[in-house]
Amino acid sequence: MPAALELRDVRKSFGKTAIINGVNLAIEKGERHAVIGPNGAGKSTLFNLISGRFPVTSGTISLNDREITGLPPQDISRRGLARSFQITNIFPKLSVFENIRCAVLWATGHRYSFWQRVGGLRDVTERCDELVQQINLGKRRDTPAGVLSYAEQRALEIGVTIAGGADVILLDEPTAGMSNTETADAVALIRSVTVGKTLVMVEHDMSVVFGLADRISVLVYGQVIATGTPQEIRGNKAVQEAYLGTEQH
Amino acid sequence: MTSFFHIRRLALWAITALVMIALPLLLTQSFAISMLSQMGIAVIFALSYNMLLGQTGMLSFGHAVYFGLGAFFSAHALNMIGAGNLGLPVTFLPLVGGVAGLAFGVVFGYVTTKHSGTPFAMISLGIAEMVAACSLMFPSFFGGEGGISTDRVVGEAVMGITYGQGRQVYYLIAGWCFVCMIAMFALTQTPLGRMANAVRDNAERARFVGYNPTRVRYTMLILSSFFAGIAGGLAVINYELVTAESLGVVASGNVLLMSFIGGVGHFFGPIIGAVLVTYLQSALSNYTLAWLLYFGLFFLVMILFAPGGIASLLAMHKPAWDVGQLRRLVPSYIAAGAASLVILAGLITLIEMIYQVETKKEQSGTVMNLFGLTFDAANAGPWIGSLATMAVGAALLWGASRLVRASWQQVTIAINAKRGA
Amino acid sequence: MLNSLSYGLLLFMLSSGLTLIFSMMGVLNFAHASFYMLGAYFAYQTSTYLGFWPALIVAPAAVAFLGALTERYGLRTVHKFGHVAELLFTFGLAYIIEEFVHLLWGRAPVEYRIPPILDFSAFSIYTTQYPAYRVFMMLVSVAMLAALYLALTRTRIGLIIQASLTHPDMVEALGHNVPRVFMTVFAGGAALAGLAGVIGGNAFVTEPGMAASVGTIVFVVVVFGGMGSLAGAFVASLIIGAVQTFSVAFDYSLASILTGMGVQLDPESAWYELWKVTIAQAAPVLPYVLMVLMLIVRPKGLMGTREG
Fold this sequence. Notes:
The structure holds 3 protein chains of 3 kinds.
Chain A: E1 3-14, E2 17-28, E3 32-36, H1 43-50, E4 58-63, E5 66-67, H2 73-78, E6 81-83, H3 96-107, H4 122-134, H5 150-163, E7 168-172, H6 180-193, E8 198-202, H7 206-212, E9 215-220, E10 223-228, H8 230-235, H9 237-243
Parallel strand pairs in A: 3-8, 3-9, 6-7, 7-8
Antiparallel strand pairs in A: 1-2, 1-4, 4-5, 9-10
Helix pairs in contact in A: 3-4, 3-5, 5-6
Chain B: H1 2-26, H2 30-56, H3 64-82, H4 93-112, H5 117-137, H6 139-142, E1 148-149, H7 166-188, H8 191-208, H9 213-239, E2 241-242, H10 249-262, H11 269-287, H12 291-305, H13 309-316, H14 318-322, H15 326-358, H16 361-364, E3 367-370, E4 373-376, H17 380-420
Antiparallel strand pairs in B: 1-2, 3-4
Helix pairs in contact in B: 1-7, 2-7, 2-9, 2-10, 2-11, 3-4, 3-9, 4-9, 7-9, 8-9, 10-11, 11-13, 15-17
Chain C: H1 2-25, H2 32-49, H3 52-78, H4 83-105, E1 121-125, E2 128-131, H5 132-154, H6 156-166, H7 168-176, H8 179-201, H9 210-225, H10 230-247, H11 254-260, H12 272-276, H13 279-282, H14 286-297
Antiparallel strand pairs in C: 1-2
Helix pairs in contact in C: 1-5, 1-8, 1-9, 1-10, 2-3, 2-4, 2-8, 2-9, 3-8, 5-6, 5-8, 6-7, 9-10, 9-14
């Protein structure tokens, strides 16, 4: 099985503090992979390294066998890796539709063009409307994103992430802060929008993790202490040690 | 639904065009026509500025650089036309300014747009100062203190148009203004224009959907410099003179004031601002030497109480208009307006008295005329009177503001009721 | 040399206040140089009644008071509208202060003189005489900066200010985001600018244009040194001060250098005007050119650590 995303001995320190201590991780094409671990283990930092938000201190990251270490976020995004954010990160003054369109415009090749009317781009409009329906925000199509409810904003966050058609999707705590029904909706949404794609997610809700993931990696103190199927992880001694007595969300 | 909006939008543009055509027929005095010409130039310049501030979130303190450099290149081109060295109809002279503005946008923008937010603001100011200082170093191009003067009545008359008359110049400016307005509006409807909004709102997220915010800012700055340069070219035709002041920091500040007062959050805001500020500047400067002070105070009051500018004040009333409740607000607005006038009268008296005593005493003594009253600013009475007037006005305004709030509450209830139904 | 040092120190008195305010509050204070100008004018007014020495205290205190008012009733109101509104507010304030100065003191320079007791030549090296007032200026600046350093390192509020230079979010989270700290910093920065005005106004010239001319140089200093870095502001102040002071004295142009090397230049050639510009003539541009070069080479500035 070829790796969609591969990390080799990735390290990251802020000043003298090492946050990521040599992570090796290979995500297979088409799998749904969850990264779990106690608070402060470095999960979000890991996502920030993969997506180019922070530069790595050492190590290499490759996407579909091409190295992406050190590239700026936009280049990584153009090579087919999209991510969502733990703290909702959308365009607050733009409508739901326009939020989605930002991601679609690049993917459909319209980029920086200033000679076409955006309303006349049939392909863009159709694709955006499909996506708005898919994330169940049809009724909120023209509402500014800033005034949506929390759960709606989270759905939009996922929508913006997948809209560009990336084949590797990173979701950072997509269900954080949601009620049980909202979480169920979110899981259904994630399932439907990531069909045929590679998904990597950080998640604290273990029912989501064990229900959704094909494989799980456990990150503790900046190192992957175990990777395996949900069954293997459940029975893994090191994982139990890391989790017993420590917090569990 | 979409076609309905298109019809409304077309109608709006048609009305704008008609107004622009009709104005000089109604206001026939030469100073009115010259003011209308100035307004046309200011509208292009302010809209081009708003491509940066309102649409891309770039606060520039140096936008007049592109206006001024465009003007200087146009002036030299016009002189070349006059000398028979350049075969360009005067009608298309603004294009020279536009291309010059664009070229300098390419050069300076490369440095400035690597930054955003406050660093961008400071660097744009530094570039503006640099260009202003340079302009005094190269007198043969910038004409030193006197500037470059030129003559717009050159070349062959096309259909009898020589631009000898003020009205012909107005129609030239109005024509360019209309074309530029449409072009700049159209730009907001393109992928680049929409992504400029996205970069303004959240530059980081734009990176994660594949866009390079620097490139968006850079492209927007180049395009905006082009329109600023066109405005500069028109200014050359209008004044037949361009001095180093036109690219200075004061000019940059002025376009910022116009856009902001008009409202940077709406496309039409800077148009209102440009028209209003141009009018105020020429009207106030006739009445008082302290007009810049009044103007500055007006600006501060706008920032403190209406940071969205006039356009957002108008937009705020649209829901009330839609449900036919606007008239409910009128009485309270009249009360607040009257109270503000009282404060203003006191304030104006005070400022004019300070001015009389501090600056004009030698020439004209301390006796002065204001609002049809004659009084001596050397006495304590007028001072106490003006302060008392301001105090009374403030008390009235406090009362009126409660009235305004109460009326708004009623209106809001009505709007919500309508929405719910 | 002495001139450049005293000027550089004066620049640092201004840029340090600006940097502190910027780092603490995220506000780039456009009216900072206006406070400098007000300091000079207040000192002029005070010195006509009480003499120079009381002015040294009274004027900065008055400016500090105005600074506190500005923060309390202006900036705090516009804060909720974001940084652009804050920046524009200080911009409008600078505008109004300049007009008020026009109104109260007229457009011509006022006669704000160096006190007679300091108006002599302290010493001379070769044929150049060094006025005692320059020495005095340096003493005041250094004393002020020493006081600032002590205040920042030895007092509680100083430590809070220092911490918020590097970790603004953390300090806020610790509950130190007391508006009073903001007001203190803003008033303190204004007082520094006012004091600079008191000692600079008579050394140079006290006129309504002084705010604009010094203001942009101070911005250049802050960008050059790296935004939010006090050490950077210090080094940059001295460099820019030296560049501005020395360049005026060099009467060489590229043309004269090239001619000296035996290159003949055609006075008719298009670029002749560029070649014949002397360094002295180019002096006003040099700080900006330095800034632009710095931005190309090192966008964060000399010692800057963060953007925006």
